[in-house]
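Recall the central idea of this unit: under ordinary conditions, the amino acid sequence of a chain determines the structure it adopts. In this exercise we apply that idea directly, starting from the sequence alone.
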Amino acid sequence: MPEALLKPVRIGNLTIERPLALAPMAGVTNWPFRRLCKEQGCGLVVTEFVSDRALLYDSRRTREMIQLLDDERPAGVQIFGADPDTMARAAVRVVELEQPDLIDINMGCPAPKVTKGRGGSSLLKEPELAQEIVRQVVRAVAPLPVTVKMRIGWDARSINAVEVARRVEEAGARLLTVHGRTKEQHYSGRADWDVIAQVARAVSIPVLGNGDITDPRDAADRIRTAGVAGLAIGRGALGNPWVFSRTLHYLETGELLPEPDARQRVDMALRHLDLMIEYKGEFLAVREMRKHAAWYLKGLYGAAEARATLNRAEQAEEMRSLLLAFLEQWEAHDRYETAIPCELGSPQCAQKASDS
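Accordingly, the structure predicted from this sequence is:
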């Protein structure tokens, strides 16, 4: 394994020691999840995106969404909008409220509620507007670094990531995160890392690649072949904050650590639940944790049945009991499978041999 595949990244006065970032995801990357990923070695976290107008309206919910804790820094706040002046004033408001380590501008969200207002990935259709937004936000919050999260284009016929990247770099952006899909793809198909590599070669600022990173070996391969300064991991971290610690370990040693077992997953889900209750109160926490609990158990024996019951949980103790009952059932199944005699030459025996 080549040494130093991952080197510290400097953006303005800020140094990201481990350029493995948690990609912002709506309804997911609140501070409980960001904290868990940080504890696993994630080098940079960014909030869920918030509207520039909501910030200026001083929405209480929006203020809660951009709350940053000391133990998760370095951390950024992501904003979206389509008016350069409003975006600049919103960025100043973020600095007043939270003193983030950076401001990230969303040019990647494909959701209709965002794009119909010309925000998110719609800005890829208006490169000059995207450039002016960055320019005005940079001026408004200097010397705080401004970064951009973008996709490779609106659709397959208009892949213009290199042009947009050059424009926002000229406007003062200090780092780019490029998701290798178009807006029209949403999250289907495969990320195009060839375009990500083209962007990395076209600009002088650091580029983080994003898309389909779920395994430490994939991470190492993408860093090596795409020439990116680091990676942003989104869906690959759902129910799997260990993706950061396992990737860091692999990059540093070449050793592939085992995936977390059922007990580790349930323990993490229980801790996540406690943090969510602290953040949102029991009623909302339990309902939001339903999806997270399903992600933690995904791929384990009995997960489908557990998901059906977890999706009906309404109280914290009920969810805890269901998770612990799942673990007990899984461990009993695992002991049973381990104890079954293996007849030489049987398909089961061959399967056990391949799994060991």
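The longest strand covers residues 146-153.
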